[in-house]
What we know:
The protein is mainly alpha-helical. The protein has one domain. It has 17 helices and no strands. The model has no long low-confidence stretch (mean pLDDT about 85).
Amino acid sequence: xxxxxxxxxxxxxxxxxxxxxxxxxxxxxxxxxxxxxxxxxxxxxxxxxxxxxxxxxxxxxxxxxxxxxxxxxxxxxxxxxxxxxxxxxxxxxxxxxxxxxxxxxxxxxxxxxxxxxxxxxxxxxxxxxxxxxxxxxxxxxxxxxxxxxxxxxxxxxxxxxxxxxxxxxxxxxxxxxxxxxxxxxxxxxxxxxxxxxxxxxxxxxxxxxxxxxxxxxxxxxxxxxxxxxxxxxxxxxxxxxxxxxxxxxxxxxxxxxxxxxxxxxxxxxxxxxxxxxxxxxxxxxxxxxxxxxxxxxxxxxxxxxxxxxxxxxxxxxxxxxxxxxxxxxxxxxxxxxxxxxxxxxxxxxxxxxxxxxxxxxxxxxxxxxxxxxxxxxxxxxxxxxxxxxxxxxxxxxxxxxxxxxxxxxxxxxxxxxxxxxxxxxxxxxxxxxxxxxxxxxxxxxxx
Length: 447
């Protein structure tokens, strides 16, 4: 009860500005740290194993992230439900949902990973990959699959640490994850000179070890959420899936878009085009987790206050998140526009022509972040208060509908047109977000 009381004080009594710096800042740092190892992994692969391995890893990455998206769906969906239940004072129901969600995430993510491994070779061949490229992609994906039952839970427990008010511990664990993963990969790739499978092994080991450390306080009963004996509940699972659906659709749609984009790039520009897109997506994997970390860290507080009928306070907390996202996007836009070639050269060595193409493409795609914070803010706030319809619409627009529409409209413009798919999609999604906010969310908050 003492633990629960401290969580209530943090979420209900702490000033929104103080809560932001106490939760969102370390949360953003933690999320960047927990995802930056993927970018460094690809950086090491590109530097030590070459362009074929780099392109192969980037072909496999969308399939790999689909499996992790399943676990993330459970984590996000259950976190929203748990926060609302805690705000309503229903502690037993929150513990039941927590227990069910942990086991469901591991089982479903592993099942998805096995399926993707089986269909992987056929999929890469369909995309147009040659034998060398396909071999690297299959090895990379296969190693990750072996560790999926445990490694996928690192994202799940990260959410639960934040619900329990342990945001700094979450940040530390994410930094530990990055350090462990990079240390293993430096040994495997730089010292032992192993192949791309060992890059995947290094990250998988880091994720698994970190997951075990994060699980221990919950197993020992030292957190506000505790494991309990409970039978699977279709009602709870349905509630979890419903709340986690926007996040899952966003992740899944993003992976589908990446696969189609890679396929078009492979046909129009070959391996170098895939590599350029891969470099940008690795940059994106640093920016987006920072954005996600801000709202994700305060999602429990927003949901808690919403469940406790303190809507004005929930909206006040969200405003700090929106401002932070706008600043993050502006800063990274400036960096990308000033140093596009240098960012590409961090990952791959190339000739002058390839460098000029990469700098041009990355500077265009970098314009995405001028407006991306708008749709991301509306989507995240909608999810935090359980407003699934609006969040789902924005997820689909951002990650699937508008990107596919722009690919279709720009397909005849060649490689040049494909670089404009992301910024044009972000602009359209932001327009839809503004309409949804003023027509729906604002009315609900005032009500």
